[in-house]
Design brief:
The protein is α+β, with helices and mostly antiparallel strands. The protein contains three helices and ten strands; from the N terminus they run E-E-E-E-E-H-E-E-E-H-E-H-E.
Length: 153
């Protein structure tokens, strides 16, 4: 197997009482649009760790990855792009958004989705899957392998 340049992104899907946490982007090409807390994976960082870092940075809350909701793949400018949407349980309810990245947040039912200005159709589809409970559970083999090693199935 050989390494290739890849655009790797992650999102945190947090569902409580059939509502999903969404955030409104405050800057960049997606400013004013809604989606789950998300971001890019840093070099040398495991994607499941990156999603928790992004959640902490954007919303000021800690979480635990419990599974994988969706995988989006694409090719843009001849570079593969992979986006992993994780199911995350949060430990506290008090959200403290970073206004440099996020301008607003809220908890939304599927019935609210038609009125949301989404980052993309794919983001809306992933949010629906999260609320419906579509989940590949995570098994962590890190201790046995002595390095980050998880399987979603």
């Amino acid at each position: 197997m050989r390494a290739i340049t890849t655009d790797l992104g992650v999102a945190a899907c947090i569902v409580k009482e059939k509502k999903i946490l969404l955030v409104k982007e405050s800057r960049g090409s997606k400013a004013g649009l809604w989606g789950m807390p998300k971001g890019a994976v840093d070099e040398g960082e495991a994607p499941a760790k990156a999603v928790l870092r992004e959640l902490r940075e954007e919303c000021g809350i800690e979480g635990k990855v419990i599974g994988l909701i969706a995988v989006r793949e694409r090719i843009e400018n001849e570079i593969p792009g992979i986006f992993l949407a994780y199911s995350v349980k949060i430990k506290e309810n008090e959200i403290k958004i970073d206004y440099n990245e996020i301008s607003d947040y809220g908890w939304f039912l599927i019935s609210d989705f038609k009125d949301i200005n989404w980052i993309s159709d794919a983001m809306e589809s992933i949010a629906k899957s999260a609320i419906k409970g579509n989940l590949m559970e995570m098994t962590d083999y890190t201790k046995q392998k002595n390095n980050h090693y998880v399987v979603f199935s």
